[in-house]
Amino acid sequence: MLFPDPARNMAMRPPTAGPTAKEFDLAKYRNALPQLGDDLFLTDGGLETTLIFHDGLDLPEFAAFDLLKHTEGTARLRAYFCDYAEIAKQHGAGFILESPTWRASSSWATRLGYTRETLADANRAAISLLQEIREDLDTVAAPVVISGCIGPQGDSYGANDALSASAAETYHSEQIEILADTAADMVAAVTMPCTEEAIGIVRAAARAGMPVAISFTVETDGRLPSGETLREAIGQVDAATSSYPSYYMINCAHPTHFESTLAGGGAWVERIRGLRANASSLSHAELDEAPELDPGDPDELGIQYAALKKRLSHLTVLGGCCGTDLRHVARIAEACAPLFRNRGGS
Questions:
Q1: What's the CATH number where 144 sits?
Q2: Domain range holding 182?
Q3: Residue 103 lies in a domain
Q4: What is the distance between the alpha carbons of residues 276 and 253, in angstroms, rounded to a whole number?
Q5: To the nearest 10°, the Cα dihedral for 297, 301, 307, 308?
Q6: Residues of the chain under the 70 pLDDT cut
Q7: Which of 3, 234, 235, 322 is least enclosed by beta carbons within 10 angstroms?
């Protein structure tokens, strides 16, 4: 059965068996990321927390990419992304398809029994799935960008096991080079807890010719787990990489944790184009110990995003992180869409 809505049609399709030659075509937006303009782009919410707490799925090591091994898991990921794409469609916004590969690097995948070859196949399959979804959704007015998601080699909330810049470049090059040979338009390194690993990722992306976004996570005091302020972190990465990152983001933290650090403005603030906040204002330590998911207040989160958009003129990519779901992203879109000229704003 086909539905009038292309997103619903995509969700009903049988899962892909794996990548084909089509996946290795030149990426559509790699040479000109549309989110670097002034238009609104939405992305998804908390993938792993949704799958675990709402769907009741078992995700060892928080590895959503492991679902691609099974037709049922692939179908669930397809439906998940199509649901968020429908929100973007309702608001005439662009959409960032962020691949479920946050844990798809060697240190995490080895714990799940992946070999180097099967891990490469999983990364390719993740982008193949997103490419199929994009085919029915991408338009000139509302582009759909495919982003290869990269996570830290170790704990997102601690800096004790963080890699040096050189070690990070070596470690992350393997995943980035695989993604560079797919239809991914860019890579995004999220929940980065320190600057050194971010620098290594940027250097690996530059060597592979991939645009890259760096998304830092912060504690309740607005500082990275390694102690740097956002201003220091962005400045250090830009200085070490000749400002190679296409833009920066903040994710896996609540707006109340970092909004005060942005108050002074400055050129470094203008480098921030993306925001994927947590639903809860609890600290990382408190969230780790919480027996249940804290959904926070979706309406309040939307209001907080709108306030941040008014302060951050270059903010164009909006989504959620831990604890957020369709409700949160819908409220964020409703609150922020009027602030974009092409979406009804002035």
A1: 3.20.20.330
A2: 6-15+36-341
A3: yes
A4: 8
A5: 150
A6: 1-26, 156-161, 342-346
A7: 3
